[in-house]
Amino acid sequence: MASARVHRGAALLLLYLGLTACTVVGPDYQAPPAPALPSAWEPARAQEQARSVGAWWQRFNDPVLDELIARSARQNLSIEAAGLRIVQARAALGISDALVFPQQQQINANYSGLYRDEDWFKSASASLDVGWEMDIWGKYARGIESAEATLYASIASYHDVLVSITAEVARNYINYRTAEERMFLARQNIAIQERVVEMTRVQYESGNVSELDVQQARTQLYATQASLPGLNNARQQSLNAIAVLLGTVPETIAPLLEATGERPLPRLQTADGVAQRSGLQDVNYQQGSVIPAAPVLEPRIDSALVLQRPDLQVAELLARAQSAQIGLNEANLYPQFVLFGSVGASQTVRSSRSFDFDDAVTASIGPGLSWDIFNYDRIKNRVRIEDAAFQESLANYNQSVLEAVREVSNALEGYQNNLERSGFDHKAVEASIRAFNISANQYNNGLVTYQRLLSTVEKMTAREDIYAQTRGAIANQLVALYKALGGGWDTLQTGPVVKPDTVRQMRERTDWGDYLDPETIVGEDRNE
User: Fold this and answer.
1) What pLDDT sits at residue 480?
2) CA nearest to 465, candidates 153, 145, 231
3) Residue 320 exposed, middle or buried by CB count within 10 Å (0-12, 13-18, 19+)
4) Which domains does the chain have, with CATH numbers?
5) pLDDT tens, residue by residue, 65-85
6) CA distances from 468 to 60, 298, 472, 511 (A)
7) Span 8-36, pLDDT tens digits
């Protein structure tokens, strides 16, 4: 009786320690200090700027671009894979949550038979074993903390994939339209050069010029014609890239891209046998252009907006998950207290000429202790490794902030410089067209050599092509800026992160419970 009271008192003492004296070892996570950002970035109108980078692609006023981005959010396979990584992280959190309950819950049973000297010895037993390691030092609490941070990091990573895919769709679409416009301009210049070749041929047959002028005209014509396959190849590569981003094959989206057709530019009119421009002051290459017109952007960056980039959230959440690993491993330095219990029944039968039965019911319960004292240095070094890894994650976060500053600065400078360059390119185009018109008239009147005419044709062709590339570069730099600001994911995340067809397939294979329900996958903090 006294022994029973001792055992009962020890069990109650351990239970009291487990319930009232628990402490969570290891450092509590503290967010890294605010990083240094360029002084020119001021928190001026954060909400307004956040709205402007939300559905930023709509500012291009291009319905085809809007449709492509909407489809990519639904169909892109990288986005789908990112959503499935959230499901994996959610299941991993479920494992960590379950560790706070009795870790050992087993039913064991066996049956055996032995025949010897005309006797049968048969035995059977069954038992239920339960063991619970009390989380006195917070090892399992730190595990849950780490798993939760990893889950939210996977959600932020999903947002980051949305940002990247959206920007890639827009970039490839702009490249497609830029190549398309350059082909259009090349064909128009080919038409001009064909007229020049014909004009030169007539002059040669009349004895006014030599065959050299004819061959030079043909050389320039063939060179311009040779540029078309390369431009068409660039356009096709952009089409193929868009198809991959939309998780489909090119022929399914080609009709959508061709829906706009070739819009006529205020380009050239025919007069006196050669192509001439009229109304130079009214020339506007933006009107009718197939290249998406980049909206005017105010060159002011809100620092708080940059720090909300999904990839920076990923870096910080991974640091938080790593911080919890320090305490999880530090708990192994201290003794682990266990409550265990077992209940079972057994039966042994001996059969010969008569039957002998031996039945027994057993039960046990009590506390236990384990302390890995002889591996103390190994555990201590494990804690040191985790601490160094945490410090590394903080360095990675600061590096990610600097990379974000670099990307934003480069994109903003690129946008402004290309915008400034486009003004000069447009003036150069106008001047080259004017020079061509003058040289064509003077050549017809015998006032300049053919070489002068050929030179103006070549320069006009080159300047128009360069101006088209500059306008494409402006749009691409703006896309790069919106991507660097982390815009777009909050607007696109309107549906479930795992597609219904995928959910159906997974449920047919495995019992997922409510883990695939949209509200369970991302939880209440889906927009964090």
Assistant:
1) 93
2) 231
3) buried
4) 1-24+101-134+336-370 (no CATH), 31-100+137-334+381-494 (1.20.1600.10)
5) 999 999 999 899 999 999 999
6) 17, 23, 6, 56
7) 555 544 554 554 456 889 999 998 888 88
